[in-house]
Amino acid sequence: MDSLSCVSPTANILNPLLELTDVRVRFRTLSTTRAILNGVSDPFVDAVNGVSLEIKEGETYGLIGESGSGKTTIARSIIGLLKPQEGSIQYDGHELIGRSTLEMKKIRRTIGAMFQDPVGSLSPRMSIYSLLAEPFKIHNQKDCDFESEVRRLLEMVGLSYDFANRYPHQLSGGQARRIGVARALALNPRLIIADEPTAGLDVSVQGEILNLLNKLQHQIGLSILIITHNLNIVRHITDRMGIMYFGRIIEQGPTKAIFDSPVHPYTLALLSANPEPDPDAKIDRIELEGEVPSLLNRPQGCEFHPRCPFVGNNCDTKFPFSTNVTKDHSYCCHYPRNLDC
Amino acid sequence: MASANILEITNLNVGFVTERGTLKALRDVDLTIPNGAIVGVVGESGCGKSTLINSIIGLLANNAQVTSGAMIFEGSDLLSKSEQELRAIRGQRISMVSQDPMTALNPILSIGTQMIDIQYRNASSRDEKRARSINMLSRVGIPDPETRFNDYPHQFSGGMRQRIAIAMALQVEPTLLIADEPTTALDATLEVQIIRRLNDLQQNMGCSILFVSHHLGVIAELCDYVVVMYGGEVVEQGSVRDIFHRASHPYTQKLLECDPASIAQATHSLPTIPGEVPNLDELPSGCIFFDRCDHSYDSCQRSHPRIEQIEAGHWIRCPVLAQQQTS
After folding, report:
1. Å from A220 to nearest chain B CA?
2. CATH superfamily of B5-93+174-326
């Protein structure tokens, strides 16, 4: 079991563990017959539209954006719960797209996932013991000693062994979240995908969960993909970040660089919207007008142009391709901000 | 209305009867909402925020007992009202916006139908009700409300759904609006939009708002007064500046320190409050924050602290720090 985790995380610290290239996930909106009858030539919506990103070993990558921008769809594609139509997902040298369920299961052993709702992602009919032993059973680790594994996992997330006999409804939100972390870590993963790991938790418990992930990252060299609405979390704990809008990453780069000088107008608006815990704070906001457009009528040109405060001539006709500011900081915009040139 | 306060809660105690004994979910809660003010309630999950809301609107679970206290709303006590009288107040004088805009709306009825249906108490014609609903939708910033009136909830984005929920809550022209974490499901740009909108509407319509949230930044931006709750008690209350600039209860101080937004330098290890919230069925005899507090003295463990005023309108439940403050 340990052989998996011993792939010496420090040796290839700069190699990407996960690499997504032009991933596209489409959902069908009408059945084939319906589409023909209604004269719809393209009965699909693009939930994720050409996303490329990479996560290096031991790195924390934060993905932010509005609800409905495709963050969770990306997470689900990586763990194989959705099948992207185009693009490639390279994980540790393996291509994940087009794998059979059985092959995927083997690969997925080293990817841990934490889902949004902490209590809802635990089966209410299983005790904590069975919930924590479940990953080992699913992956056919018959020779392992469940009891000691459960003990190890509970200890790792700072809960006593008494919890093994409890049921999910007997846990607080923070405790349920820790069980979620323990389950994600059960098989010594190399990559953790955390979808809104702290939504609905108060600041103190949120701090505990994030510190726990951070500690484990240092101990076992985990890579983490964290999906969240919370800008403060991203600022503190991620190394690199990507901002999604409408199924596309519109800016990505080192967290510090983006917070210091955001380039894309949406990033600017998003970062300036973050409310400060000070009633007298003077916040220089960039207000966004209008609504997120519907996925069914994708705007021409740049997706953001109907709401963009800096909209220019060709924004509604020409699609902005990714441009680099520095080697690892890129954006998609015709009229970028905060650039000296 | 004679009183300057729309709602005055005094000495409210609520318990839940369970097999393990009575869980004292709210203890000695005092809370005042002045006319036309926005009062924020903050606290960890499980500190009694939802119980407080449910007892105001009279929707507590069957095993709940209000053991003592008074809730004076517009001059009369809500606790002494019959179910029928309460029904006339709920949705008429007091309305509510809940956390999740998807579950608050019925997915199989168009929003138009729902907005007309909730005006069943109103004697006016269907056309008038329709016109009023459309007007309300445009006031909360739904573009093109005429044509969208017959759309279903799933055809709107999350931010729009939440604004529709706000429109529905405000269209009855309540004197008190209760908002239970209305922005948690939204991203920062939409969150700011909703807050702005609530603030504008509140100023135009003159209602009071009880605003419950985890998000300290939102509270700081929107509210006039803040109530901090911990383990079923109010531990500190005051104006928004009292709380954010002169936090005096140890719990409030820690809570503000823990907020990642208040830490300027990026850090990988975030501050936390060590320890757990006490169990509500075996409460300590002394201060409930004793185990987690940095200032604790022997006296804290002996007697249960009362809430004391340290400056005009600023109250804390901590005798040790209250004494230091006033002397």
Report:
1. 16
2. P-loop containing nucleotide triphosphate hydrolases (3.40.50.300)
